[in-house]
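Progress narrative, work stream C.
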Amino acid sequence: MREGWQNEGGAGMVFPESKIVEKIRREYPAGCEMVLDRMDDCQAPPVGTHGIVKAVDDTGSIEVAWRTGGGLRVVYGEDACHRIDTDEIVKEFLTQYGKEQPEGSCPRCGRPMPHLSRHAVSRRAAIIVCDPCGTEEALEDAGMTGKKPLFTWTAWKGR
């Protein structure tokens, strides 16, 4: 049997070890964007198709909502994909967005941000956020709450 795999359920059913599944879940959290590199299936979307990760199942397969409308999973050990919204990429986008930031709504949460109301400078990128988001980032940095991933920001999702 290949290293990192375990036989569960007999009848030739082989699954990746739980530590590998957990690693995949950390690398591909729900909501992140990815691109298909390889899939050997007659119904597969074309290579290069973008999709949003919905979940990673117990077999390490990535459930994806493809931009083309399909829902085939990326199967661990058979298919290939890569994530395109790493923190570095999103931070670069947000910093550029902040240079020409339109008025109206908070790029982090989407709440209205009236011109004369209180605002904050984000701790994540060179960008202005609403006052509640500034407070949330301070609490995150103090370890009082979990950090909101950059790829969940409204400005990134709406690009």
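Work stream C, second folded protein:
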Amino acid sequence: MSTAYSKCYDPAGTRFGVPTYPWHFAPDGYATRRQLRERGLRPGGQPVAAQVMRRHRGRKAGVQVAYLYREDLAKPVRPMTSRKWGALALAMLARRTCPVCRITYSYCLPTSLGCCVLCAYPEPTQPAACGSQSKEA
């Protein structure tokens, strides 16, 4: 095993407090939150069972960590109720409605502007006059 993997390999959990494995080398039976969600599961309040780690130059600590949860203790995802669907629909409607002109668009408005493009830039842009105007003789 290379030194990069040996720094991230701690199956007993003595160095980091939880069992640690190199990236892509986690044993079967563990999954990240995203992997659990793809299978229709959620952690369900269980503590972090293990972690996978890899070197990452862009981070301050120099490593990137993903927490793993046990699949056998995971619970099914709660189904959306009609109230939750309604709240989600209202939230999406608010993201598509301009607060200035109150027009509802078919897309989410940019948060950098805070309103629709027409309200953010009300003046139409004029093409530059670069000598294309006809001179009267």
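The chain has a mean pLDDT of 88. No further action is required on this item.
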